[in-house]
What we know:
Residues 104-152 form a coiled coil. It is an enzyme of class 2 (transferase). The protein is built from five helices and seven strands, in the order ααβαββαββαββ. It is an alpha+beta fold.
Amino acid sequence: MKKNDSDELIIANREIAFQNEEKEDRAAELVIANKELLFQNEEKENRAAELIIANKELAFQNQEKENRAAELIIANKELAFQNQEKENRAAELIIANKELAFQNQEKEKRAEELIIANRELKNAEDDIRKLNDELEQKVIERTEQLESVNKELESFSYSVSHDLRAPIRAINGYTKIIVEDYAEKFDEDGIKILQSIINNSKKMGLLIDDLLAFSKLGRKQVTVSEINMTDLVNAVREELVFEDAENIPEFEMGHLPSASGDKSLIKQVWINLVSNAIKYSRHQIKTNIEIGAYTKDNLEIYYVKDKGAGFDMQYYDKLFGVFQRLHSQEEFEGTGIGLAIVQKIVHRHNGTVWAESKLNEGSCFYFSLPGINH
């Protein structure tokens, strides 16, 4: 009995020892398993950290994708808008091309018309050229004829005026002899008639002198030089002669720049204009005459202004004509040639003469001459 118990104990102890070894092996395996589990946990944590990073990266990429998607949406809208604009432009271009094609057709038609018109124009130009040549020849012929007629007319005027001097002097002289030697044989009316003959013959003499002066202007050579206009006008003023009953004019002289011209002819212009200003101021209480000048368009403009009788501007076209008078002989004496002489002299200097006036308020006569530096 005891032996059996010992055997059983031995077997039990062996079993326990075996189980202990098994437990130790299991414990060792558990230690290894725990280490493996710990390593795996560490690996899982590393993977988890990597997953977190990857998730963050993925989230960032998703955000970027959303941003790109939003940008693409905007870009697509812009592209759609541009495509619409292109379609609109294409439609406009189609219309424009049709219009251009129509215009090209019109231009071709116009070109054909222009070709025809140019041909007609060339033919017309040829005709005009022929007519111009003929007209130029006619103008030359007419000019020669006019020059010949003018020379003949000037010669005739000079001859007539010159030849009239002798009979006028004779009439005047014989009438004076009758008055002086036979006055007692005439009554008062007869004496008046004789005196009227003397006065009219004197006027006729003055008229002949003016006609001679006017006709000589066409033949006189214009000698251009520098004219000291202040000295020239002062010389004209000093040569003025007045009767005791006449008003001595008061002159208001402005600056008179020098000019280019024929001194003797321009002196005659001043004499005629100043004499007219004095004559037509005769009935004023005081005779005031203003003489001045100004520069305009490279010309020196001179003027003589009075406060005399003046004239009506509606008769201006008669002012510078030969024998044209705007006042009666009884009111103001004269031959009606003075202003015509002024105009002819100024025109021969390539200048212009004109006037402004108001009836009973005075007149202002202007004339232009080239300046020294122009």
